[in-house]
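pinging the channel bc i need a second pair of eyes. not urgent but kinda urgent?? the chain im working w is below, pasted from the shared doc
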Amino acid sequence: MAIGLRPATSADSEYCFQLHKAAMGAYITAIWGWDEQIQRDFHANAFTPDRWQIITADGADAGMLHVEHRPTEIYLARIELHPDHQGRGIGGRLIRSLLHEARQQSRDLTLDVLVVNQRAQALYQRLGLHEVARHGENNIKIRMSTKPPQPGPIHRS
C-alpha cells in the first residue's frame, strides 16, 4: 500500500470534520457527549489547512495529520484515520517515520491521547512511547513521549 501526505486545503474542511466524527466521535461522546454544533464550532476554530496534511492510502484520502516541530520535541498534535483505513498499519508507519525524524534530530516525540482511546494508547506503547503525565479536566488526556520517564510517581495535574 502506498501511503502519502498532501497539504490540506480549505476545500478539505468538511472532509476533516466528517473524518473527526467517524474516527473520534465515540471517544468524544464517551467523555463529553456529541453536540454537533459544538463540534462544528470546535472544528472551525481548530482547522488550519496550512498546518494540516491529508493522509492518503493508494491515492485515496484516508485521514489527517498535524505535526508541530518544537525546539526540543516533535509534537504529534493530531492523527486521525477513517475507520475504513484503521488497523492496516498506516498510523504505525507514519508514527515510525516521526520517531525516526525525532531520533535524527535528537528530539523527543510527544503526543496527547484521550484516556478512553485505549486502542491508540496500545499502538503508541508498542511504538516505544510511554505515559509521562495526565492532564485536562478530570485527567482525561494522557501525555505520552519517547522522553525517558522520570523516577517517582507520574505527575497528574
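so The chain has a mean pLDDT of 94. and Helices lie at 13-31, 36-46, 90-104, 118-126. — does that match what u expected or am i reading it wrong
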